[in-house]
Design goal:
It is a single chain. It contains twelve helices and 20 strands. By secondary structure, it is α/β, with parallel strands linked by helices. The protein is globular, with a radius of gyration of 24 Å.
Amino acid sequence: MGPDLHCDVAIIGAGTAGISAERSARRQGAQTLLIDPHFAGTVCARIGCMPSKLLIAAAQAAHGARTAGPFGIRGGEVRVDGAAVMRRVRALRDEFVAGVKDSFEALPDGTTVKAAAHFTGPNYMTLDDGRRLSARAFVLATGSHPAVPDAFAALGDRLETNQTIFERETLPESLAVVGGGPLGLELAQAMARLGVEVTVLEASDRLAGIADRQLATNFYDRLSTEMTIHLKAEVTPRRVDDGVVLEWAGGSLKAERVLLAIGRPPSLEGLHLAAAGLTLKENGVPDYDPRTLRCGKSAIFIAGDMTGERPLLHEASAEGTIAGANAADPDHTAPSHRLVPFSMAFTHPGVVSIGEVADRADARTVVGYADFGTQGRARVENLNVGGALLYAEPQTGRLIGALLVAPMAEHLGHLLAWAIEAGETAPTLLDRPFYHPTYEEGLKSALRDICQALENGVPKDRDDWDRPGDHSDG
């Protein structure tokens, strides 16, 4: 008896990577099936990028009203209506999700299959409704899920993750955020600015994985003015009648709720990857070629958060496009250009890491520094904090990395990511027009540092990079 369903390319998972893979494979002329048990919309639209930015936007409005004093603006007490804040978050979030669902409806008839699927062989899967599927190639794009150790799972409804926090009817009185990565810090700062008593507990010695210790310290000092932060805190949670107690070496606290943000492992459960004959790594993810996204020599490809490598929307979209195109013609896969690594935290100040970065004391490249604590436009806006490090090849001055803890970092970061992708050098960028007064103008001092190093040779004493210099905007 033959399979109930057959196609050229079966895509498992209808998130950002899966949607891109289906579109890419179909563009190559392949007959596709997009298989997902829910078709609930992407992680970004439902529980990630968009609802978190909606919460941050509300927090920014409250913070701006409270901190207008330096401009000579006097206002009354700012009252945050937590229920109204959360209603807006969900209402606009639902609109974004509806847009994704509309895209499913626009697919050719018979393209979507609402079911869970697992492998029964290299070219076969069985759906949870009993139907059997065969395909010439597969793209695995099942995404990721919040890491929840058993001790935290035992907290029951006192525990929040990004899958639950946006469903709250109102804001909590107090919140302990376990995990000082981008997601944890974004939500922690937003909650704090909305009037929640927030404590952040991070197991490592710095926040957001900032590579440069001086910038990491600067960031810690700035965020500590808005919330309590404990570093090197390995936490043990315990539920009590009216909240949660968290304990770590040297401290403890009690909070109404805990937000857990310690990572998002790949979603592999139920796929039966071993039945597909794949070689699996220690974390259960198939061994794959990062240039083609092919799993070994099979006709199975992988994309998006499921790889566990770059859990970011733009990476998921790019990987889906690569995997879908290669799956459409698995006999002629070709290595594809991978985008420069580019990540950010939408905190204030923002944190951006692009390409090759390191602590400036350990860097083996030419490093330029821009101080946003003294930068003109930042002072005008009363946002003067942080700085930017630019990394360049010693021989050519070609930019290879950037690390920012600065105001408007998300915009400056895009300019630098594009420049690095294009192979721009510090001298050529310094010759570009810089309008006055802008935040972009603040990068000129870092570019000048690099140009000076190219003329004079890289200082042997790396401490020379901390020297007072001309960091003016002119």
